[in-house]
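pls design
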């Protein structure tokens, strides 16, 4: 149960963190001046956000495993 909750927390925290960082990165480094905000928002929503969610999920599964002292109970 602990691993599941940690994975969900990582999933929910990873998406907005990576989406915001992706939006800022595309906004800063993109050479597109015609529709740069659309490019940044679409990349953040459909590339960076899901990537961050998957990374958060994996980190939650790894860090949410039971500690050796918890297994004795």
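designed seq:
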């Amino acid at each position: 149960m602990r691993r599941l909750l940690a994975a969900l927390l990582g999933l929910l925290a990873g998406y907005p963190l990576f989406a915001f960082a992706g939006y800022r990165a595309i906004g800063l480094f993109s050479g597109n001046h015609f529709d740069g905000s659309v490019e940044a928002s679409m990349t953040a929503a459909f590339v960076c956000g899901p990537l961050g969610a998957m990374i958060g999920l994996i980190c939650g599964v790894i860090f949410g495993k039971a500690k050796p002292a918890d297994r004795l109970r």
